[in-house]
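Lab manual, section 2.4: Encoding a predicted structure.

Procedure: take the sequence of the chain (570 residues), apply the prediction step described in section 2.3, and record the output as structure tokens. A sample record is shown.
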Amino acid sequence: MTIPDTLLRRHGLFLAVVVVYAAVLITLGPLATNDGPIHLSFADMLGHIGDADWPLQSQMYMSAGTLQPNMAIYAILRGLILVVAPDRAEAILQALCLVGPAVAAWYALRKINPDNAWLALFALPLLANQLFFLGLYNFLFSLTGFFLAIGWYLDLRQHPKLWRGLLLGVVLVLTLLSHAAGFIMAVLALIALEIVRLLGDWHAGVRGRALWTVSGCVVLALCLPLPLMAWFALRQHGYPTEYGPKLHDRVFSMARGKLFRLQSRDNLLLPHGLMALMLLTLLATVYKIWRERHHLLRGDATLFTGVGLTLLFFYGFCLVVPDVSGGGWTHFLRAQLFPMLWALPCAALLINKSWMRWSLATLAVIMLVVQFYQTWTAQGQVRQQLTALSAIDGQIGAHCTVLPVIESSTQFDQKGIPNPVGYEPLFQATNRLELDRDRVVLFNFLARLSVYPIQFRPGHDTQELLYHWEPQQTAVNVQRLDVGRFEQKTGIPVDYVLVWGQPRENDPVSPQDTQRVLNNASLVYQSVDQQVRLYRRNQDMPTMCTSQSSHMVTSDKFQSAAIKDRLRQN
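Recorded output:
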């Protein structure tokens, strides 16, 4: 049998699903996420921040000027923006974040058991979780490096060479530049696997160079990124550290698959199915480790011993990791994804029946289709609300500031069910207006963090001045709008106010002083359903804003813009 025949027989299903999945994401995307518009805006700013043609953005923002642990996706986005439209660039990046780790997992699984590399299919529904829809592209992209490092290490065990150790170190450096979480978990997995191998080989009587060559290559690989990691850690010294969710809350969150609840609370079939498979894998892993508990000390430990113990170690890590640390948060949410993904190497060493392979492969494809259908249904609701941005874009000129106000914290579908759950895409969707004509949107909590390449200039933190947020505040609710304080401290006027939704009684997100801000403003745009409204403020401060629109956009004009937008998307 030829190599292409073997490749298609073992991996044809996975390769076909990945190609179709990536093509659909790129063609129909981008999907609406929380932080996605900010990442896109940052990547665009990197090309012109400080230029005379962008005076307003240059007055508000500055480049960090140093290497950051979240630089990888901005380098990719910046390159893509130069050749394709920004929306298409984000769609390609989203495909890389969802498909890239799955392909890397397939590569690692081929090193473990080529007959079960198709299990990487399950990585696709696992990756499209709340973290993705929160817009944590940096973290998801680091998972590609995580699996590449594991796969390269497994190859290194079979062929220990100095150059292989150096290349492993390069992979770890690139993973660190994507996100520290993927790098840290890769290092922990490599150390756990290598310790088990050392103990097994030692008790098997292996000594000298045969015992220590692989370990030397691993140590060399770890030495390359550690200085960079230490530098990043020193720069983040002084930020608070908090444990976050209590122990029992963490256990229940992981058991119930909260990470995979993307839309309404009725869509629990997929989370429950994934958690059922996870539980079966965990129980089978624990049972096999128990049966082989004496193998490690007898010198006949198998690869499964190291892989299985690493799974248990990842679970333990989820229970102890601080949720707030190093200037960031949601660390527990990120950590709990790793045992889910690490179940794939365990399953690759457990499954040995043909009927199990076919059944699980079919189940993986069904799960992916169900998840995509549910996600696209929810995205349809969001896209209807975001369509108005195309009409608003034509109403706002150059060098203008826009203050977005969320009047209702939850969007509802036609049945009255909250949709989506777990993320709020309207919070930063308005930042897409920053991609053109030197505009600044006055809601950006990423620019106040030191781990991103674009940051507020000193004294221009909109979250502090406008909303009275505390430093390192993790809650994103808005209850105050102190426009006067912002204008007085920065000398920059608030030109436009963009209002999403209608005020709801006792809504924790709806600012109480919205009406006071709008008392001296003129309505210049209103969507057909009246859920999106744009106001031009009437104030005497000197402004760079070139748009002097004061007319109301009619429903007919809005419908025409919406139709054109849908045709362009189709």
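Check your result against the sample. The radius of gyration is 25 Å.
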